[in-house]
Amino acid sequence: MIYHQFQQSPLQTRISGPRAWLAMALSVSLICLSLFLLPFVLLFGAIALGCLVLFSRFYMARQLAKFNQAQANAKQHAHAHAAEEPQSQVYGSETIVRETNATRYQGRTFEHKEDEH
Description:
- By secondary structure, this protein is mostly helical.
- It is built from three helices and no strands.
- The protein has helices at 4-7, 10-14, 18-84.
- The model has no long low-confidence stretch (mean pLDDT 78).
């Protein structure tokens, strides 16, 4: 009686029958299909990333050209009004606070003192 359980493999009763063989065949076929399609998925991802990079480069170049043109127009507009108006309303506004002696410290580096934290 005790030797009866060692005569058969316990996996033999679990993996038997048409459903188990069908499940195994299906899982093996899915693994093979995924391994076959993996290079194509990676190629599609690389192509999509390349298209995104090219689009962003062209888009950013167009936006930068618009920005530069707007800056040039603003400078030209400011120079045209500088002759009429001695100080612009934006820079003459009280809301902008400027450092009074910033030009004295421009381009200088300061060493850190040991006693300052």
